[in-house]
Amino acid sequence: MSANVVVYSTAVCPYCIRAKQLLERKGIAYKEINLSNEAPEVRTELMQRTNHRTVPQIFINEQFIGGFDQLYALERQGQLDELLNS
Fold it and tell me: In terms of pTM, does the model score above 0.90?
């Protein structure tokens, strides 16, 4: 699987941790952008791009899929592997 996966997170977010654990269990490499370490403009740009204020915000091949709940739902429905292989 060679999908480009990006996870925007913060240091103390339990859903971020769960999303990363799910990806790691599946052996999916991902790039993490920790918003706690970024300039405030990065978070502002992300919110404008996705219309979401919470983290994690997960992108697969530059497509915004949502947060942990959406990632887990895709996995439960058997659609995550499909997305990762596209």
Answer: yes
